[in-house]
């Protein structure tokens, strides 16, 4: 959107709070475009193609991975941002980077590493995403990480425990962790990525869950959000059945949620009348939101998926094997750091180095490493 028509509440790349290490401006790209490009070219971003969303990569070629999930979040985010006049490039950058710190094997990996690191500072996958872009990427001669803008880093840090926020604030006073200590919100672009993330994973987990055979479309008809759009799809196309009916139901669900977010956010903005992006940050609750009715429907769908998909016996059995792989890897590396590459083995903070190394693995590399170190093939 041209600067002359940019809403006051939108993030402005020309007025960014800047980078930790100042750099000359790029001649052909805005600062947020530059961040997006750095993320896309990062090693961590490429690894997302072989990291689990719900189903392991080798369980089927068409199941979502962390990469395809991130792309779907970016697509939804840009569509909504365009309607609200927000900075699309910042939304895309945050969306593409928000899962860079996710472990192999999805949330199972997060839980194992947090347990293994209990006496050494713990592990949060969201904080790890910030750690990736701030420290762990090694692409540039003058700095570690990607040296991203404050606004992009702010959006990446979606959650943060108070303890970790205090540690971040000590090294970066008034930085990306301050809102977790003093209250307040991130930019609207960051808020949008949070909501787009929820919309994306609810929709694609319905798709992947049915595709896998672990849940049936008929089961989903107990969920209001699914049932109303399934009925609308059949009203418009009475002969529709099978996967086309599923796809049309999901398409209608996505559209309804997107339009709801746009309308609810416009109403919230009209009430709050933020004068600039910092006024958005000073609000006591997010302005980028669902309506109350859609929030209730989305929450009900999440509860259904948790009970019937994420806690399905088959998913849990895979999770147990994944937990064994990562726990064995952590123990092996902590006992003998020379089993890791020198960049990790030579670090003085051995346990954090183990967590960083394991968190960066793809599913298939973790399985191969486990087999190399233990002689076992648990999958």
Automatic annotation (TrEMBL):
Family matches, as Pfam families: HD, HD_assoc
This protein's record includes keyword Hydrolase: yes
The HD domain, residue ranges: 66-202
Keywords annotated in UniProt: Hydrolase
Family from the record: Belongs to the dGTPase family. Type 2 subfamily.
HAMAP family, A to Z: dGTPase_type2
Protein name, per record: Deoxyguanosinetriphosphate triphosphohydrolase-like protein
Organism: Pelomonas parva
């Amino acid at each position: 959107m041209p600067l002359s028509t940019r809403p006051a509440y939108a993030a402005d790349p020309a007025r960014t709070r800047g980078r930790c290490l100042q750099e000359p401006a790029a001649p052909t790209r805005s600062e947020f475009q530059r961040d997006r490009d750095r993320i896309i070219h990062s090693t961590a971003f490429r690894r997302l193609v072989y990291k689990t969303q719900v189903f392991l990569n080798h369980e089927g070629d068409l199941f979502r991975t962390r990469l395809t999930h991130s792309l779907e979040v970016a697509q939804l985010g840009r569509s909504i941002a365009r309607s609200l006049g927000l900075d699309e490039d910042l939304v895309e950058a945050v969306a593409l980077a928000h899962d860079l710190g996710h472990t192999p094997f999805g949330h199972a990996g997060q839980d194992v590493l947090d347990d293994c690191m209990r006496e050494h500072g713990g592990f949060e996958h969201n904080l790890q995403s910030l750690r990736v872009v701030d420290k762990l990427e090694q692409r540039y001669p003058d700095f570690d990480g990607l040296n991203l803008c404050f606004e992009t880093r702010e959006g990446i840090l979606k959650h943060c425990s108070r303890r970790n926020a205090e540690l971040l604030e000590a090294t970066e006073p008034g930085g990306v962790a301050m809102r977790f200590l003093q209250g307040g919100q991130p930019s609207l672009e960051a808020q949008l990525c949070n909501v787009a993330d929820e919309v994306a994973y609810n929709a694609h987990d319905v798709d992947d869950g049915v595709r896998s055979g672990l849940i049936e479309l008929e089961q989903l008809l107990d969920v209001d959000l699914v049932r109303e759009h399934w009925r609308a799809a059949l009203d418009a196309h009475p002969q529709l059945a099978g996967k086309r009916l599923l796809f049309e139901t999901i398409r209608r669900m996505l559209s309804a949620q997107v339009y709801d977010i746009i309308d609810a956010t416009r109403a919230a903005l009209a009430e709050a009348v933020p004068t600039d992006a910092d006024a958005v940050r000073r609000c006591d609750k997010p302005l980028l939101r669902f309506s109350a009715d859609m929030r209730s429907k989305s929450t009900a769908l999440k509860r259904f998926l948790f009970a019937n998909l994420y806690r399905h016996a088959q998913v849990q059995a895979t999770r147990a094997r994944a937990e064994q792989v990562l726990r064995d890897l952590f123990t092996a590396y902590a006992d003998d750091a020379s089993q890791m590459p020198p960049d990790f083995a030579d670090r003085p903070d051995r346990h954090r180095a183990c967590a960083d190394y394991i968190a960066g693995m793809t599913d298939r590399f973790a399985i191969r490493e486990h087999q190399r170190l233990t002689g076992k093939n648990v999958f």
